[in-house]
Design a protein that fits this description.
- By secondary structure, the chain is an alpha+beta fold.
- It contains three helices and five strands, in the order ααβββββα.
- The protein has one domain (3-101).
- Strands 1-2-3-4-5 form a five-stranded antiparallel β-sheet, with helices on one face.
Length: 109
Amino acid sequence: MDKALMHHVDAEVRLLETGVDCDGQPVEAFAYLEDALDTQLAINVTEGEPEFCGAELCVAWGGPGIWVDTQYHTVTGYWGGDKYERTFRDFIGLTQAAESKWGGTWRKR
């Protein structure tokens, strides 16, 4: 396993669990969502009213690629053929912010 990949994923987990970035600055959930490079929404449409389940946020790309999943509370990094994944406790309220931001945007008006 690439140690740099592990370092990047571990740093992202620390940020999400402490609410402080690597420069010691506080991190706000809505700003974190805005800074994402890409977003994929998970919507359950199998029964009744469609339901927002979570979002996958690409927060780094190139080396390594890092995705944060608010549905399963995981941070996953990819670099070359390696994959490293950790769970996180959502200290900054990212899951609630994602639901607030995107929870109703996909519904037909």
